[in-house]
Amino acid sequence: MNITIKEVAKLANVSPSTVSRVIADNPKISAETKKIVYQAMEELKYRPNAIARSLANKSTRTLGIILPSTDENLFGNPFFIQAMKGISMYAQKKDYYIMYTHSGNENESLNIVMDYINSKWVDGVILLTAMENDRCIAYLKDADHPFVVIGRPENTQNTLWVDNDNFQAMYSVVNYLIDKGRSNIGFIGGPQHFNVTKDRLDGYKRALRVHGISVDEGMILSVADYSEACGYEAMMNMMKYKIPTAVVTTDDLISYGVLKVLKEYKDLKIEVVGFNNTPLASYQTPPLSSVDINAEKLGYYAAKLLIEKLEKVEGSVNHYIVETNLIERESTDILK
């Protein structure tokens, strides 16, 4: 049975127009009247639909998400699934809806942002990546449209964002490997234009220098895509230059490619550490040590920041730093 505004108004002993104004959070309606109407809505289990809310307060209560992935591998990277779960958890708690669109490149992402804004489909936008000279961020700022970024934007002062301390996370991983006796450590990072790649590379270099180990640029490679195939190719190229004693990557999917190489060269005992702690990491041979970046929590806090911005919550912060944890698993350590 569908409950109507008229039934809510009758129970609350107010006019239907007053109920509409309460839904729109009209400041002219007293707190006492709002309380009575809300109690009636709760008693009748009345929930205003998105169209009614839109007409009442010109809000869709919908958040737009742009997934930086093609339709072929839309859910290939578990990070996006976990982040979306966190976004959905907070959005649902606050009665917001989610609209997501996938994008294969920055031009497509920018066109989606334009569509979101010009069509008025969404109240705010969630970007799942941050890169140098980010055109989507620049456009959203120029349009003065609410948005949040999962990742560190170049201008952190005037942007809502949530991220890990990627510098410190990678620094800790390299320090952990050096303490275990590894000194010839290779680095395979994601696309260079992503800020997360830069931050993790900086952490890698700093850890080496702190321990008095020279940075060998030949041991630093980047891939065009977060995939096993790219990780495999990068590892093969690294071994043509020099055989490492350990390899760190910026994503587990890249690490899977590295491990595939090691399966082909069984005499090589090279320790590998990835990032994102994807579900399949523990099922690799050997099981993959990985940094858990708490992707679900990143998504949760991204939605929280954006919704608090939309609802003008006083005292809200403009960013969150989510903790990371190194998950150690059985290794091929030859130094033990």
State the secondary-structure class: alpha/beta
Order of helices and strands: HHHHEHEHEHEEHEHEHEHEEHEE
- The outline comes out as elongated
CATH T-level fold name of the largest domain: Rossmann fold
Overall residue-averaged pLDDT value: 89
Strand line-up across the major sheet? 2-1-3-4-5-11
Q: What can be said about the biggest beta sheet? A: 6 strands, parallel
| CATH top level class name of the largest domain | Alpha Beta
Between the first and last Cα atoms, what is the distance in angstroms?
68 Å
Low-pLDDT runs of 5+ residues are 332-336
Looking at this protein, list some descriptive labels.
336 residues, 434 Repressor (Amino-terminal Domain), 6-stranded parallel beta sheet, 6-stranded mixed beta sheet, 12 helices, 12 strands, elongated, disordered C terminus
How does this structure look, described?
The protein is of the alpha/beta class and 336 residues long. It has three domains: 53 residues, lambda repressor-like DNA-binding domains (434 Repressor (Amino-terminal Domain)), CATH 1.10.260; 130 residues, Rossmann fold (3-Layer(aba) Sandwich), CATH 3.40.50.2300; 127 residues, 3-Layer(aba) Sandwich (Rossmann fold). The protein is built from twelve helices and twelve strands. The strands form two sheets. The chain has a six-stranded parallel β-sheet, with helices on both faces. The longest helix is centred in the N-terminal third of the chain and has 16 residues.
